[in-house]
# Entry
Amino acid sequence: MKHLKNLFLLTAMIMLCSFSLQAQSKVAHVNTQELVESMPEMQNAKSELEKLAKTYETDIQAMATELQNKIKQYDAESSTKTDEENGKRLQEVQGMEQSIRQYQAQAQQDLQKKELELLKPITEKAKNAILKVGNDQGFDYVLDSSQGQGVIMANGKNLLADIKSELGF
# Structure
């Protein structure tokens, strides 16, 4: 019985200690999406991506115009050509359509790759600033309060302004 009493007392003390340790944790939050979008580097990355997208769009539009002109020409001349020539022309048009689709897919992949390439250093810089400010201010946890991250904040410090000043903007 005495051992049971001691075991119960020890368990109660451990639980109290763990509750007091949890109560001492300092928690802050930051909207990382807002932080990254407000960084000056992000504006440069967006404009570079828009410029690249516009280049691909112009190329695709030129290819589509060339295809439309070829289709009009072949339609106008189809009655004067043999079935064999019209078959070859049809294959040529289908090949051009396939080339355009492949180019669009490649352009999309290139844009995604470029976006990742441009965003990685920006997000790394933001993460490092969050860690530095969080550590400097003695926070145990810094939660991401961006939309859809599952964090609902009622209390806790918002570090966004402090991190922006750490980054120099």
Notes: The first helix runs from residue 2 to 23.
